[in-house]
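DM from R.C. (forwarded with permission)

"hey, sorry to bug you on a friday — could you get me a structure for this? deadline for the figure draft is monday and I only need the backbone to look sensible"
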Amino acid sequence: MSLLVIAALVVVALGRIHAEQVPQAVLDGERQIATDTAELERIAIDAEATSIGRTAAAYTPTTPSTPATTLKGLTSGRRAVLGSALLDPLTGEPLAADGRPVSLTGVDVVAMMSGHAAIRPRLMPSGNGCCLLYFAKIMLPAQSADAAADRIGSSSPTERRRLLVISENLPGLTAYGDGRTAELLGAAGGVLVTTARGTVAPTAADRGLPAAATHAAYAQRHRSDASGRMLGATTGGRRTVAGWAQVASATGPGYTDDLGLLVLTSRTVPARTASVDYSGFGLTAAAALAGITLLLGLVLWFCVQRPLLGLRLSARRLVRGATGSGADTWVELVRPVHVSGFGEPARIGRALESLRQQLAGASGPQGPSVRHRPGCRALALVAVVLLGGWALPMIFLLNRVDPATSAPASVVADQQARTEIAADRVRQYLDQSYTGLREVAGSLSGRSPAAQTELLLRVLADHKQYRSLYVLSRSGGITLRVGARPLRSMIHLPDGSGICTVNTSGRIPAIAAYVPVPGIDGGAPTAGAVLLGELDVNTLNSALSRPRLGRVWLTGAGDRVLASTVGYRAYQALPEPGLTRLVRAARGAPGTAGTATSAVHASFAGLSVDAAAPLPRSGPTVSLPWHVVTAEGTAARRLPAVQAEHRTALAGILGITAGVVCLGWLHALVIRPLRTVALRCERLAEGDRRTVLYPVNHDEVGSLTRSLELIRQALVEGGRAGGSSPTATPSPSRSRPENAPQR
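My reply, with the result:
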């Protein structure tokens, strides 16, 4: 019955595989690319808002200071500022302004300053587009403002609050993957930023995608991480696929949650025209399994079950003839035992016939016993071979996917694009770590050692990516440290600033950002001290992780692993040679960053779509020969050919497993007890009267064993009586009663 159920499952599982015009894996990939791109936008906006807030909190005005000099001191280090203003929190009037005029339409400055939480950025029209307004609260000494205002709107008579407003363009949007368009949409569905990579030919039929994405996002407005996928028009055998995602935090309240920004990515892919149907194969495989099941059932019925039922009846008849009384009991011993089947049932039948003759009066064993012939175990072995002949091709041969064609080119391209995004995210993570260190490095000069320690402790609490902050003197000694003990400190000071690996071996890679700090050497003025921020490798590992990207590694010099989303050992080689070859193919000529590459590889774990992308060389990562490598198994993608392969193999595994379990159960409960009964029955027929036969099973075999024990007892009683027959009736060769039937 279980094999028939598996046959039905084969029909259902394979019959439900259908090939759409655009594979589901392509749609899922576009959705993930839109989500990853939106995540980069969110991180960029959050980082800028956080940086402005930290700059405002750490600002120390010079004496004397005016609103104009304060505003200049707060914005002088920022290159992307379009306009800025310093506002009075009581009236909302600008005290100082610089650059383009800052539009504050609809902004309630008084309400903003009344709260204690950080102020979220606002999206404002600017010319033909939009800009972002960043806000930060500033506490200034009272002597830097007029004396009359010192006593109004401040928490302390020696402080005065101000509101800093900075206007900047929207973060740059990048389109990842050739032929892809990326758009940043506003809350009303308008396109704010558009970028494309490679040759893109937009069609008029796809102009409604932004409106459709905005409508879909509005339907999921209660979700902060809403995303989706869409299909566009078909033109010339190609169809547009699109993905959208909100620029919002998925882990909790964030700076971008109220902006209503949406990322829309799209590109054209080949549209499938040929249909793929596996229902015919499923019906054929199920019919073959059902035929094997029926054949095995008939063989077991005619060779084991039916003969066993006949033997049980024959044994009961012999018991009645051996233990009964009356003139008719001898008739039960006259009729010979029918020997049918082969193997153990045939052996038991021959032994019962010998016992019948002995009960009827014959002396000694009658006829030789033949034991060395194929038995029921041979039937079980044949059944295993038949099931294996069906299951093994299903597991290893049928519906196999060629590695070269296992994944469509568009799926491979999506993996490469997502790997580029992952590399950009790592670059963003390292850049933020470096920027945070650079901001604090300039504030260390001129402070006492206690003030320096307090500042570094505050930075360590704000920047979760650091595990340790320390100042390295020109001689290589640590003069100031907060946080955990460094994994390994540098002996020689590095030149300039950037990101580096402090160690080259060990269990944990030590990666640090470093910035020169002139004037710091144990509190004494000097030149050449360096502030290092050792990065927590766990936060770097989490920066690599993205849904449905598979296994991700970050490799450094020599293609050695620095971080990964799976278990790894620092500075070990990549787990598969194909991944190492991809990294080398992505490596460019000396002095260049290289280009991303991808391929489909076969390994012991199965087929996987792999890609490698170099880290963008800009800012602190300009000299890093690092790469991001990803590997996603095709089993995780909804591809018809891959689904058919795995469901076919699963059906074979279930078939062989169910067959082995059923035959094992048959061997344990029927064949092995039957062999034991056959052996004991033959020994009893050969004259063994001492071995007591205990019934163990409560089935036909147990019933047969109980009958044999009664026959043994009858033979023993007959032997004690000194007669050749245990019964009181005459043997068939003697005179019969008058009413005895004639043969």
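R.C.: lifesaver. Residues 281-395+659-721 form one domain.
me: no worries. The mean pLDDT is 85.
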